[in-house]
Amino acid sequence: MEPFLMLQAWQLESLLPIFQRQPSGNKILSQLNLHGEGAVLKVSLGGPDVVDGRLLAALRVLLADDPEAVHKHDLNTLMSLDVQVPLGPTVEASALRTVLALCAIALQHFHTKIMDDQAILGGGPPLITQLAVQFRLQKKFTIVDVMQNISRRIKMLSPQKSTG
């Protein structure tokens, strides 16, 4: 299935200098195809993977305090949202909160709010306008769904953080 929404390159480029300060940062970013020649700086949100594994792995590695713990896991593990907190609940919560922040930024870049779009659709616009607004509204709902999914995951981590 195709991703439902792509974050733009500028949203990821702001993270690159932080990675490049870490000794293995460029290597990991290159392995994730987020750095170097031919890098793809767009990541997807929504759909069966909820969050692009490349983004999730990059955030987990960036936020990990222990480089040795990072190297104990392969990239597939670090890219999986299904894996139970490979680098610990604190790193996981921080990575997921960062995804939430990126989602909030993505929502802010729409020039209308969800309620505005619903009002436009309720006014019986021309077909072309209706299709465009429905498409824009679906993108917003996808972001909201991702945010709700990620928020649930963060809440599930809370007991682990206090006992771990």
Automatic annotation (TrEMBL):
<dbReference type="Pfam" id="PF09273">
    <property type="entry name" value="Rubis-subs-bind"/>
</dbReference>
<protein>
    <recommendedName>
        <fullName>Rubisco LSMT substrate-binding domain-containing protein</fullName>
    </recommendedName>
</protein>
<dbReference type="InterPro" id="IPR036464">
    <property type="entry name" value="Rubisco_LSMT_subst-bd_sf"/>
</dbReference>
<dbReference type="InterPro" id="IPR015353">
    <property type="entry name" value="Rubisco_LSMT_subst-bd"/>
</dbReference>
<feature type="domain" description="Rubisco LSMT substrate-binding">
    <location>
        <begin position="28"/>
        <end position="140"/>
    </location>
</feature>
